[in-house]
Amino acid sequence: MPAAASPAPTARRRRTVALVAVVAIAIAVAVGAWSLRDRVVGDAAAISADGSIPRCAGRLAQAPRELRGMWITTVNNIDWPSRRGLPAETVRAEFRGWLDLAVRRNHNAVFVHVRPSGDALWPSRYAPWSEWLTGHRDGRDPGWDPMEFMVAEAHARNLEFHAWFNPYRGGQPATVGGPGPRLDQLAPTHPLRQHRDWAVIYPSADRPGSRLYFNPGVPEARKFVEDSMLEAVQRYDIDGVHFDDFFYPYPEAGQDFPDGAAFARYGKGFADTHAWRRNNVNTLVREMSERIKAIKPWVKFGISPFGIWRNKRTDPAGSATAGLQSYDAIYADTRLWVREQWLDYVVPQLYWHIGFGKADYAKLLPWWAATVRGTQVQLYIGQGDYRVGERGAWRDPAELDRQLALNRRHGVSGSVHFSAKQVRADKLGAVSRYSASHYANPALLPAMRQLPAVLPAAPTVTGARRVDTGGVEVTWRGDGATSFAIYRVDGGAAQLVGTARGTAWTDRTAPADRPLSYCVSGLDRSGNEGRLSAPRSLAAM
Questions:
Q1: Which long-range CB contacts under 8 A does 189-195 form with residues at least 24 apart?
Q2: What are the residues whose beta carbons fall under 8 Å from the beta carbon of 150, sequence distance 6 or more?
């Protein structure tokens, strides 16, 4: 009978609606967990790359996810080596000291200047040895391989090593001890001496800051520069390729970059030199992105540009600023690089204080956060530690502390500090202040979803014992992981207390007056975290 049969379809509809609701909730939870893991900065529950929420001894595991790094500058011996021509062991000891500083400050990455001026800190087929290392401009071999040493020492401390290159600089100005505009003052094997048609002098030779550049508009020069940097990618176990803000030089009053002959030859199809120059830089960035991933898909590619792309008064898509526009002045279309996702990360140099009229940190930061939104490009901020102690707002030791707090509110994925010397100097106690507020505990690197993922299996903790020198030594077995995260339960949540690349680690902060449990997880090269081990517990002393 129709009247009696009518309840059955209604019941089926209700069951269908209920099932759809359950599925929708499950998808929402999974997607929410996945997106949370991507964007989390600061203390939060870690979420394994397989979507599970890890626990150790029944307690929720927590780990901040953010990159924390510093630039180690070699040009002009700003940071390292402290002087040219030092004995190899002194140079190595100084570098270990910088890495140990990074560890003490709970950093997890270093950005090291390995091609400052058309030279190299490794035995290269494309460039002479750097005079900032050897003390000589004749290209003489120091007798050891600094790059191999640096990468190994960084990885021994579980610090990512980002090799920092300046693509187009051919030398330094004579005012800082460089060759200036003179080709005959370069090393005999310098490529600009062998390919003089690639060389550009800017500003003119009669200006104090005059120096040599590779011409970005000559395709053969661009290919050579790319090959010279990719040599390091091929030969060394670096984690990232890093550029700063130097492509075309910053403009000098009354001076145009003298590339008219190259534009006449290669600029057909472009309305003017400005569009052509911008395309030259775009081509370098795109080709480097493609070629790095063709060699080693897991190597990250990032750029630290000048902090202003364009001002809003020039372009509605620009920022609420009134400063130099890198798009127009140095032909760096940073917004395009992010939108095209040629980069894995971007580190705008926001070296201005909160409230600065022409370039307010508090206005630029949300502009950059909006620029990366909807892409897989991670946003780190270049922090101006070198400005601490200057007149005005920088006399306040809390300025950087407030900037890092603002970063966190806008979901920034990390910070890189310029430079190592300022991190060590700790002027006005500013570094100690922001470190206590924001870097008090270790952090895992943000996972990069666009890079290859190979989830490690859960390790097996083989031991946890108190040692006579204080603390607890934890040992484990684990296959397929690049690094490991160590969690400790001492009454509350399971907190990240350390990371390592080996299979043993000592917890120097372990309390002696309570029982403890430890779990270990493995992470792949891209930062994806596998499942936690079973806990290993020990009693109070």
A1: 189/128, 189/139, 190/118, 190/127, 190/128, 190/139, 191/118, 191/126, 191/127, 191/224, 191/228, 192/118, 195/220, 195/221, 195/224
A2: 95, 112, 121, 161
DSSP string, 411-444: T--EEEES-HHHHHH-GGGHHHHHHHHH-SS--B
For position 51, what pLDDT does the model report?
A: 73
Map residue 104 onto helix, strand or coil: helix
Identify the pLDDT of residue 8: 39
Taken in order 380, 385, 387, 388, the sign of the CA dihedral is: positive
Q: What is the pLDDT of residues 111-132, one digit of tens each?
A: 999 999 999 999 999 999 999 9
User: Can you name the residues that pair with 466 across neighbouring β-strands?
Assistant: 472
Residue 52 CA to its chain's centroid (Å): 27
Q: How buried is 392 (Cβ within 10 angstroms: 0-12 exposed, 13-18 middle, 19+ buried)?
A: exposed
Q: What tokens appear for 73 in the block?
A: 């500058």
Residue 526 to residues 31, 139, 161, 232, 377: CA-CA distances in angstroms? 20, 36, 13, 19, 13
CA–CA separation, 481 vs 386, rounded Å? 37
155, pLDDT greater than 90: yes
3-class DSSP assignment, residue 266: helix
Tell me the pLDDT band of 26, cut-offs 50, 70 and 90: very low
Rounded distance between C-alpha atoms, residue 424 and residue 417, angstroms? 11
Residue type, position 496, single letter: L
Record the pTM. 0.92
Tokens of 486: 């160590």
Residues 6+ apart with CB under 8 A from 18: none
**CA angle centred on 23, ends 17 and 28, rounded to 5°:** 125
Residue 29 has pLDDT above 50, yes or no: no
CB burial of residue 502 (10 Å; 0-12, 13-18, 19+): exposed
Checking 92-97 for CB contacts under 8 A at 24+ apart, the result is 92/149, 95/149, 95/150, 95/153, 96/153
Q: What is the mean pLDDT of the chain?
A: 92
- Output the CA torsion sign for 243, 248, 254, 255: positive
The rounded Cα 502 to chain-centroid distance in angstroms is 23
Residue 76 zone, left/alpha/beta (φ > 0; ψ -120 to 50; rest): left
Q: For residue range 216-273, what is the model confidence (pLDDT) as tens digits?
A: 999 999 999 999 999 999 999 999 999 999 999 999 999 999 999 999 999 999 999 9
Q: What is the pLDDT of residue 42?
A: 45
What single-letter amino acid sits at 499? T
User: What CA–CA distance (Å, rounded) separates 111 from 122?
Assistant: 16
d(CA 436, CA 430): 10
89 CB-near residues (< 8 Å, 6+ apart): none
Interatomic CA distance for residues 154 and 98, integer angstroms? 10
